[in-house]
Structure formats: C-alpha cells, structure tokens
Amino acid sequence: MRTEFEPILRIVDLMAAERAELSMSGPQFLILHRFWQPETLCTPGEEITEIRLLHRTKEVSLPASRRLMLLFDYLARHKHAPQCAAQIATGLTADPFTRQHGNYAGASTSLNKGVSRTAVKQQVMRLRAGLGWAFRKAGLSLNPRRVILSENTLTNEVRYRLKASVSWQHLEL
User: Fold this and answer.
1) What total of structural domains would you count in the chain?
2) How many Cα atoms within 13 Å fall on the side-chain side of residue 98?
3) Whole-model pTM?
4) pLDDT in tens, 51-101
5) Domain annotation covers residue 37
6) Which domain holds residue 164?
7) Helix or strand run (H / E) with residue 84
C-alpha cells in the first residue's frame, strides 16, 4: 500500500546514498586540458585550462591560479600515495607535465623554477579555501580538509592526499 510519505522517503534514501558516495570516494572533479596533441593521451606541453567541481547538474569552476591548478592536477595523478610537502615540492619540480606546462601553446610561463615545501603548504591552504568556495557555490556541505587530507605520521611530518574522483578531458582547438 502506497503512503503519502513514500516520495519523501525516496528522496531521503537518495540523499543518504549520495552522502555515502561522497564519504567513500569524495566529490567529483573534471580537469580540462587544452593544446592537446591528437592521438595522444596526456602529454607534457598541454595546459590546464580549468578545474570543475561536478555535483548533480552543477559544474562549478574552481577559482584557482595556474600554480594551484598544477598542484591539484599533481595530487590527482598521485592520489593513491600520500606525500609530504617536501615530496610534493620535489615531484612538482621534476614532473615533466609541470615543467613543460603550456609549451604546446608557446607559453614561456611554465613552472620551470623549483617549488619549496613551504610554498606547497601555503598552496594547500589556498587550494582548500578555493574548494570551500566551490563547495558552497554548488550547495555541498563538505569540509575541504576532508578532500585534501592531512595524514599524520609517527613524527610531526604531515602527508597530503586528495580524496576525490577525478577525470580529465582534452579539448581540441
């Protein structure tokens, strides 16, 4: 027998399932690369043009600078291995995608100088602020610290890890 509350119960069940999915795999993001080279996957020389938070039917552009987008992309590509700020700084400095960012477009503003671990810590803080803004705009009540995780070690070192579902899209010119 159908009750008058059945539609409300379905919505509550749907929201509970959505919340469980968010808790398990994190929010969904789409990273857009441009200057893609046809017949390749993802190569150094492309440029990150935008990072979007996807929630239900909304797409919210993350308000991030080029450096923050490079950090987010790096964390997304290495999300299964938490890294301390020094490891991230070394990784960003050595990463071919980061070093050659935008070269296909003739950009000379790639991240060709080193990144310090102090700069990484500051950028993580700024990235979390941008995530908080995007979550509010999308109507999500998520704490950015639950998306960019800080994992303590036995010493006072902190390791960072991105907890999110991320996909990449390559734009053709």
Assistant:
1) 1
2) 23
3) 0.81
4) 999 998 889 999 999 999 999 999 999 999 999 999 999 999 998 888 877
5) yes
6) 26-170
7) strand 83-84
